[in-house]
Design a protein that fits this description.
The chain contains 11 helices and 16 strands. The chain is of the alpha+beta class. Strands 8, 9, 10, 11, 12, 14, 15 and 16 form an 8-stranded mixed β-sheet that branches. Strands 5-6-7-2-13 form a 5-stranded mixed β-sheet, with helices on one face. A hairpin with a 2-residue loop joins strand 6 and strand 7.
Amino acid sequence: MKAPKKDWYKLDNAAKIYPVIMNDRWMSMFRFTAHLTRDVDAALLQRALERALERFPGNRVRLRRGIFWYYLEQYTKPILVEPDVNNPCTPIARGKELFRLTYYRNRVSLEVFHAIADGGGALVFFKTILAQYIRLLGVQVPATHGVLDVDEPPGGEELEDSFLRYSRMSVLPSRAESRAYKLSGTPLEPGCIALTTGLLSVDAVKTKARALRVSITEYLAATYLYALYLVQRAQPTRRKYPVKVSVPVDLRRYYKTKTLRNFSQYVNPGIDPNYGEFTFEETLAQVHHFLRYMLTEKNLNARMSKNVSEEKVLALRLVPLWIKNRAIMAVYLRTGENTFTTALSNIGPVELPESMREYFTRFDMMLRTARKNAIECAVASYGDTLSVTFTRTIRQPHVERLFFQMLVRAGLKVRIESNMEG
């Protein structure tokens, strides 16, 4: 079904939180980077973006403030590709488009404000731009492997709020969770982000995970969790808090939807040091069994239904936005970042049409650190290259150093890249 042409769009259910919690110094953003085999032609990249945007009207928008809710309005000014010269994922100026496409030498990066898409939807946008760019180099690229056909009109389902479509539970779970440990350290200068990327062999990590009878995500999440646990244990504080890693789950794996907007849920595996000392093997078992228990269609539907049910309450819908914002922020501070230490997002293997593959060597993903959390981690893979990127806003690199040391001790080879010294 062809999407009707619209001048504005409602925020999807998950997106409603992001305008409320943002400020002039921070926005919830994430970034994909593609490494090409040759330097980028900026003029061709601009043409590729303009052509791809015709297929993604839900991304050519700006954020507007209404009486009862924020909403997205079509953005009519030109959207220009930019040289990649600033710190990644800096806030976007109010009233502007909600993504940026940048380039530097042989790299192209897409940065996205979470209010318009999650990683799954944004990756389709990014791959479609890159496919159009490769076409402009004279290569025939089919619309397969998540690349959309820019000659087709946008589909209505691509712009739907799939949370509203698929939520069905009437018995709703509580959001209550215990307070989680927060990593502390010496803050970097305002606006600065420390980036550390470890590059590994996909096959080697997969072999290691299979030997332990877990998935790659479970293995990496447990390693990350254990590194954070060791950092907290080394600190001279009497009170210890649970260490929890928030893992986003792409709901497109469970439902037949083509939505390009947000359609993810989050689960928070963790360990509580107040129960005693943990080994890595115990941590891995805890993560493995927690994720296998939580990641079922019924559990995930109950969690999304909780959010949707609140949105549908008539009294809440009629409350003016300025009052609603205060209530949403109060709930977020109690049940949002307070309940996890950090996040680990694994976008999985980036698949491209065969005719494109020789033009790319690697894909990275990074997360902007959350408001109160000093470190985040994102994972992407392309071919046999697994990219693990840590972002932090403190000087101390203890967590990622421990993380990669654990992988090396497990027999894995890691090549490190960083924008910081030491």
